Amino acid sequence: MGRAGSAVEAGAGREASPPSYTRLDADVPVLYAPRLAGKAKELSDYLARGYRTLGQILSVDPPPIIAYIVADEDWEKAPRDNERPYPRGLPYFTRSVEPPALVLPEELSTVFRPRTAATLPLTIWHELAHAFLLGREVVRTPAWFGEFVAQAASAAVACRIGPPLEEHLSRIDKEAGFTVQNFRGPAGAEDQMSFQNLLLGFGAAALEEFGEGFLPSIFHALWEEDEVVDGERAEELLRDALGPGGREWLESRPEFQEDPL
Ligand SMILES: [Zn+2]
To answer: How far is the CA of 37 from the centre of ligand 1 (A)?
Structure first.
């Protein structure tokens, strides 16, 4: 999920793929466990289309990245920022290797809800959006802001190239019990998922109201910030990126209240 940090990681430059992994060349080259060739093709297609579409939406040259499709038995050997392996089934982005990598499990954790045709591509494009943002130096932001940006960007890709989001959004549980403002991590996996879904619905609503133009504005604004972004500044960046009517719209949104409505 979102880890902002220094571009210089301890392990930069090390070749971390298990030696038996096969390489599939594409815009986002994929290294995969040989028994996952079918999966690699499916994910490579989502990666390539998301990569090109995000580059267009954000008006930037996509950053060089690769993807690992990691077999269950290899999960603990996958490249990562921390000493300890991350929970199984959760995709993530890491700058511990060069080029930086998306690490994708052979199957998504059952924690990912709702399960529709959009679940897998949205999850991949969410991590791609983190990769795009972290392709340049960025200051720290509140967790909700980085995750909102990734969720809104993945929804924007779906709006351009499909799959349609209506069914997925309609199956999100609306009773999250918290808002963007009062969610406090770290939380259990289910609350994390509810929080991500709250942000996905929020991002999709922003896209519907304002179009996708606020996304390049936010990305570029974040690349230009040189001080840590606190909650107040994050709201200001979001308001400015949304443009005229942004303030009133944010005040009207249930996701943005002090307490759940
Ligand atoms: Zn994330």
So the answer is: 26
